[in-house]
Amino acid sequence: MTRPARLLCSIMLVSLLTACGSAEWVHPTRPKDQYAQDYNKCQADTLRDPKLQQGIQLLIIQATERCLQKQGWRLVEKE
User: Where would one find the signal peptide in this protein (predicted)?
Assistant: First the structure.
């Protein structure tokens, strides 16, 4: 499996596991369906960073989540 394919599979797995958890990403003014677009943009921006192109999954996920938080998304516990 190539490096980009492994990266994509890992990110999809983390997203799936996160979706099964008890928390969700919410934004005060954007609809829930906007999350996927914002996540994909943040992830693409993160993967362009030369420091993160080594493929360290945890750093990529953390950088993507920081980008989402800068856009106003917050990870909150489901009720």
Answer: 1-19
